[in-house]
Specification:
Helices cover 28% and strands 26% of the residues. It is α/β, with parallel strands linked by helices. An eight-stranded mixed beta sheet has the order 2-1-10-9-7-8-5-15, with helices on both faces. A five-stranded mixed beta sheet has the order 3-14-13-6-4, with no helix packed on it. The chain is globular, with a radius of gyration of 19 Å.
Amino acid sequence: MPLLINGERIDLARPTGDMIRAYPHLEEKAKLLRSQPVQIVEPKGLLYVQQREFAVTTPKDGSVSILGSDDATTCHIVVLRHTGSGATCLTHCDGSDTEAEVSLIMSSVKSFSNTTGYGRLEVHLVGGFNDDRQLSQKLTNQLLRAFDLQPDDVHLVTFCVTELNDREEKDIHFPVIYGIAVNVKTAEIFPATFPEKGPDEDLRSAHILTGATLTNIYDAKMEQLHIGPYFWRPFPHVDFWLEQDDKQILQNLSTSPLAEPPHFVSHIRSTLTFLKEHPFPSRSLFPDRKPRIYKKNEEGLWEQVCSDTI
């Protein structure tokens, strides 16, 4: 059961440029998405998803109404939704293990979608650009192939990736859209940025930087955000990296140094500092081997309900 556009199976042997020309409505939809103003999404009702994380919920969720992620350069943000149940998943993929990640988000959405015969699975892909190393194109191809391998029909509805998300300025390429949000109640997808990326932004970033695999961070039935427990070894040469100037960090720790958002280096420094302060998270962060659990309070903000604090 393949990846479909307008009910037709996609021929993945053809270049994506051919696919775009064969289905001009995809390009029109991407153009429409690119033309929308970027919305600033405040923390109330928001579940922010970092790189190599995913979250899935339904319109019945009384705590979370928006799933979102940003700071994607060569990465792609994927929204998978079942039109019958409204179950919606958002993830931020970087190409580390795309096939396994797609299988994981598929099973997660399907676990909320027991309405046999009613509705369909729709996927929206956003992110990447025409980067020099062609990492974006590689990830686009990986995602198309991974969805095509699924046992269920998956309908490609939004395709705003790589060449369809590219802008050029003084011979340098950049993504047009760096982040998106999806309204779980209405299914609306829009370009977005997020002033608050918490809770536990540094902890979650440290988990990624030390080689995490894709992690589910949300229990929709309990309406709880679960962070950890995460474990890593002391980060190699952390003092060396913290001594480097901004240019060195950008050149060595980014997949696309010229296209990163302005806060990239400060974010990496903050994460490295956190790793230096917590070389053994089993001692300092998760001595009881339990996750940090958060629920939304009456103001719609995350509040820790149990587990240790830093």
